[in-house]
Amino acid sequence: MSPTYNILFLCTGNSARSILAEALATTLSHGRFIGFSAGSKPTGVVNPIALKLIEQMGYPLELVRSKSWDELGREGAPHMDFIITLCDSAAGEECPYWLGHPATAHWGLPDPAAVQGSEEDRLAAFKAVEMGLRNRIELLLDLPVDKLDHLELKTHLHHIHEGFKFN
């Protein structure tokens, strides 16, 4: 039986990218990874387009909520094996201390919630970010995580993001 890994995706608002990543990591890995998400300044509301995409993935909507990263940095919170920041502002902020020295990386992606325009334009932005996350998470799932040391994991996480050019 292979181990289960906890992966935390961080954004500032925790309303779109990090929520999508949480759902993707959990559903694509079939239980090998448990996705979590949080924000440094959470909006408290999940974007309705993100909710629609998450529902299509089959991820339980009752698990989805916008929350502070402080909640996952407290004593008694799940131990994180990986922490991925998804927006440049969260990557530059002073993060809480995470026990166990999780492997970290920055996978900067544009905020689809910031896109203005028609419903089709906004949906297209969300789907593009979803695909960018999906591609990266699928590459992560292909890694022999249990056979790599901390530095190798960090290097692979960095290379996963660098392998994609996001327009």
Automatic annotation (TrEMBL):
Keyword Transport: no
Phosphotyrosine protein phosphatase I domain location: 5-143
Molecular function, one GO term: arsenate reductase (thioredoxin) activity
Keyword Oxidoreductase: yes
SUPFAM superfamilies recorded: Phosphotyrosine protein phosphatases I
Pfam annotation, one family: LMWPc
InterPro entries in UniProt: Ptyr_pPase, Ptyr_pPase_sf
Keywords, in A-Z order: Arsenical resistance, Oxidoreductase
EC number: 1.20.4.4
Listed GO biological process terms: response to arsenic-containing substance
Protein name: Arsenate reductase
